[in-house]
Please model this.
Amino acid sequence: MLSMAKGIKVGSEVRVLRGKFSTQKGVVQASEGVGRARKWIVKLNGGVLERFSARTLELEQRHLITPPSTSIRAVSQEEEDSCSSNTSSDESSTSDNDEMREVDEDGASRRASDVSERRTNWDNRDTAAESNGDDDRVVLDGVEWRKMGDVTVELNGPAYQRKAALYHPLHERSTELDFWKMMMPADLMRNIIEATNLHTEMAQKPLDYEQLQHFFGILLAMTLASGGERRDMWKTESNGPFPAPALGRYMACHDFERILRNLKLCVYTDEELADDPWLPIRSAVDSFNRNRRGGISPGVTLCADESMGSWRGLAAKVDDAVVGLPHVTKIARKPEGVGTEYRTLSCGETKIMLQLEIQEGKVPMQGKEYAKDYGSGTSSLLRLTRYWSGSDRTVVADSAFASLKTAEALHKHRGLRFIGLVKTAHKRFPKAWLQKYPYTNRGDHCVLQANIDGRQYMAVGWNDKKLKMFISSTSRTTEALCPAYKKRFRQSTPEDRTSAPCVVFYKEVKRPAVVEAYFDNANAIDVHNHLRQGGLELERHWKTQTWWHRNFATIFGMCESDAYLAFRYFHPLAPILSHREFTERLSLQLLTYKSSFHDTGPSARLRKHMPVAPTEQPLQTVVAKIMSSHTLKTNMRECPVFQYKRQRLEQDEEGTSHNGRVPSVQRKCSVCCERKTAYYCDECTQLHEEIVPICNPGSTKPGFTSCLAFHINQVAIAL
Model:
């Protein structure tokens, strides 16, 4: 009878002493439990996996046979020698077929030597660990990591499961403009109108909501033009094959330039600006965050990353006065690597941006919440996820945020799970252990598990082209259903490498489920940034020397990209549109926009009669308060507005029909503008002094929001 003290470990050859498998031999694959309850999982020679206690096994051969992962194939010394000999012989060959090999000989030689070096390091590690009694265990700053087999069930129990949803009702005839209104914060537009109209130049012709929409439409139209000066957008004569934009049909050029010169995002004083240099843009960021918090319920995964707002202008202080961008961040690896950095959070399912945080500089960020306790990356993630605390969602982040400390903090303060790619922040993380592990083939992985305060965490090493290491508090490590696909190119005919076309093929690399969960969601913000910077490119077309105008262009582009992503994901009857086609449609709808009582920017009459709800309240709370007063009435003949108009018609002989009767009481619905109805909203009819017809809720198609619900929600947004 031999126990762990006698040398049984993962990879040892053992013989069964008693039971129905007595005298059979096998290889130890993994272990379960600790102490006396420890069980060894043995793969017998017949291929059967069974669990045995230490007292039922006898050590047969005391050396490591194979790595414990069933997906790793052992490389023998003969294979390595063969690989090396084939490499030397192939190097002397100069044929075209040898040149067209997918893996060159030098690479094969390097991999063979790397495998040999890793096996040597692993064997040395085993020799040193045998004296300590356990070679599958590493302790780092009080955290004990143990080598495990594949995690076949969800770590820390089943994860949160729910699809993304909009709090805004979706009507069957919702247009691109409707999704734009959902994503562009209404309070931000009100602040723009109020702050811009304070300039004396705007006194004679103040900015209103309709003109602001036309202004936005011109900004989008500028991104669709093929270069040239801004004033060229108002030309009426075509230039070659391209038609003239002729934007003067919607807004005069001098009116657009006047609004652009005086554009401000909020009202503030010089004293307030001296205390907070980011004040001109901070209100826009806060409005964006409130809009997303009350407008969308994200899916199961949240993605954290960085976004850049390009800025090449002034960034300096003169006599303690900020005359340019208060802080410039430079990140060389970014396509637009100079400007304002935003730490952002998005929905991994829809890729819609959820939260923004300006990176104001080293000293100001050290005074933020959680910064002293957790540092920059972890504290930013805690602040970005505050509105989804306790939802048991999974946060996915790259190496700028990922660490064991981040995974612990998200569970402690937010009740969230975490999957992250670890590079430099490896304190208490077994990075060196995973690097020395002898991965044999591309796609192999290794798992270590730790229990910290009753919660399980796992460290995963995945052998891709380069070793990638992950920290996770959720998911599994069994082989993923979908492998990683690597795009490759190969010459169709090796004999003719000059004129023969290339053949595209995909190389499959196996990966565990936790790696699949990471890479399926980690690109959400990258996709969003590409739509904004590579597709819309408003920051390049809007040339300005005012730094908050450039930052507003960044937020404006995020709202437009979010509207496109929401339109593509949530609208069941939406046509398949490219981003450019969506921008063209939205620009035209904004340019031809006419105000109505359904606007997200309420008229003066609506603000006068309706109390303004606090912006801190969620949209659904405001909707619940409005539903009690905004009810449908069926008898339009009893409506005071209708009776007044009826009297006018009866007095006017031309208004009556041939048989002396007043025309029908049915009117077209003010929401869908198609079906006729005798129902009307009594509250809005009294406020606007005109009949507001609404379709009967029973006439709505299944799966869509009724016209009444859509009407109530639009009124709530206006408040």
User: Anything to note?
Assistant: The chain has a mean pLDDT of 79.
